[in-house]
């Protein structure tokens, strides 16, 4: 008996065959055996979900992908990593434990639970992360890129536990752990041509999957496509929703006491339409309370896109702000009605005209109109699309 190998080049990976000396008894070696055994029909290497070619409206112009644009193969690997509890030290926590698809990839808990404690700030939504000028991540922008951010929770003692400190295993231990799993050997070979696992590859894949998560099927997007720009009333909006849009867009005019005397409320000065991403130049928004309830937390300067703050039924996708302080859109809006400068040396200048904390003096009708407009930014597909769902289920 002798061994020989036949390569079937029509597949993404060559199929191997063993044969006897007469070449008469062939046995196929499936390069996707472990992928199929683990994920069944959820991942088909020969028929991947469309991550790279998703439709994006022409009026969306921001894109922070840089040198790591979304591809079907790498995003597929990222999906597996995102949902895999093996990325935590005790096999109980994945990225998706805190970023839940059914809640716009956020969490309903104020502080998400990790392997050794809780997070220090409320979990951000991951909607339209790609479509923003901001390239720093976390509330305090400590991660200089999405790629860098993706493995920081894995390396955190409290969150996923591969810190290499406080008795934790190191990230190198995680790489050895993943390398022992047959489906990763096949996936990394499928994606990168070899089964070598590195942190850079993990970061690249997770970032591509996160950037692939998009939501552009909202009532706002329908109206924007019809109107051609954001200025005129949208024909598919109610009067209240159009009032809220106008308030959101128009900057306020203040008197010498920082009291609004006319105009809108100027939300778009920081939350920029039509992506609704946060202006990278913003500073603190006036909310300085932290989750522990003691001291001041003025380092929070980043916000996720305002899209999908609520579900289609109007319920919140989780409490709002970095400390989860607000349980309704109206409460979050009212935070900006009167801004205090006390104990805050990092307050955004746009919130203190003339160096004085703004007093918008919004009426209840204006608050309700703004909330109605924000609800038009909600889509539906992102909550149920299988390409962003758990491949292990």
Automatic annotation (TrEMBL):
Keyword field: Heme, Iron, Metal-binding, Oxidoreductase, Peroxidase, Signal
GO molecular function, one term: peroxidase activity
Predominant cellular place of this UniProt entry's protein: other
Signal peptide: 1-21
InterPro entries documented for this protein: Cyt_c-like_dom, Cyt_c-like_dom_sf, Cytochrome_c_Peroxidase/MauG, Di-haem_cyt_c_peroxidsae
Residue ranges occupied by any Cytochrome c domain in the UniProt entry: 73-182, 239-378
UniProt protein name: Cytochrome-c peroxidase
Species of origin: Flavobacterium arundinis
């Amino acid at each position: 008996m002798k061994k020989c190998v036949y390569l079937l080049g029509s597949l993404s990976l060559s199929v191997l065959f063993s044969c006897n000396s007469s070449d008469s008894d062939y046995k196929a070696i499936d390069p996707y055996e472990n992928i199929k055994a683990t994920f069944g029909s959820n991942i088909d290497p020969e028929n991947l979900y469309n991550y790279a070619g998703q439709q994006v409206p022409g009026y969306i112009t921001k894109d922070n992908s840089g040198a790591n644009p979304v591809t079907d193969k790498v995003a597929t690997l990222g999906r597996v990593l995102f949902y895999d509890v093996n990325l935590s030290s005790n096999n109980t926590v994945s990225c998706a434990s805190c970023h839940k698809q059914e809640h716009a990839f956020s969490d309903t808990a104020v502080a998400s639970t990790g392997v050794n404690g809780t997070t220090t700030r409320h979990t951000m939504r991951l909607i339209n992360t790609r479509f923003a000028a901001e390239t720093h991540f976390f509330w305090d922008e400590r991660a200089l890129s999405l790629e860098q951010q993706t493995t920081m929770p894995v390396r955190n003692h409290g969150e996923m536990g591969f810190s290499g400190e406080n008795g934790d295993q190191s990230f190198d231990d995680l790489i050895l752990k993943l390398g022992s799993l047959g489906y990763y050997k096949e996936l990394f070979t499928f994606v990168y041509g070899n089964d070598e696992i590195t942190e850079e590859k993990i970061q690249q894949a997770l970032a591509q999957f996160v950037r692939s998560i998009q939501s552009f099927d909202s009532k706002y997007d329908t109206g924007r496509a019809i109107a051609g720009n954001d200025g005129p009333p949208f024909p598919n909006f109610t009067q209240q929703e159009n009032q809220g849009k106008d308030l959101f867009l128009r900057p306020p005019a203040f008197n010498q006491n920082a009291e609004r005397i006319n105009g809108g409320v100027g939300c778009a000065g920081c939350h920029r339409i039509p992506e609704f991403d946060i202006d990278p130049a913003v500073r603190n928004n006036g909310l300085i309370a932290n989750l522990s309830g003691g001291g001041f937390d003025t380092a929070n300067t980043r916000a996720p896109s305002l899209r999908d703050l609520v579900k289609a039924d109007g319920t919140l996708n989780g409490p709002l702000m970095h400390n989860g302080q607000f349980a309704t859109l109206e409460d979050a809006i009212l935070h900006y009605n009167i801004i205090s400068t006390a104990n805050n040396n990092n307050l955004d200048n746009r919130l203190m005209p003339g160096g004085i904390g703004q007093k918008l003096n919004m009426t209840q009708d204006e608050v309700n109109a703004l909330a109605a407009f924000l609800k038009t930014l909600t889509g539906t597909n992102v909550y149920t699309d299988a390409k962003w769902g758990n491949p292990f289920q």
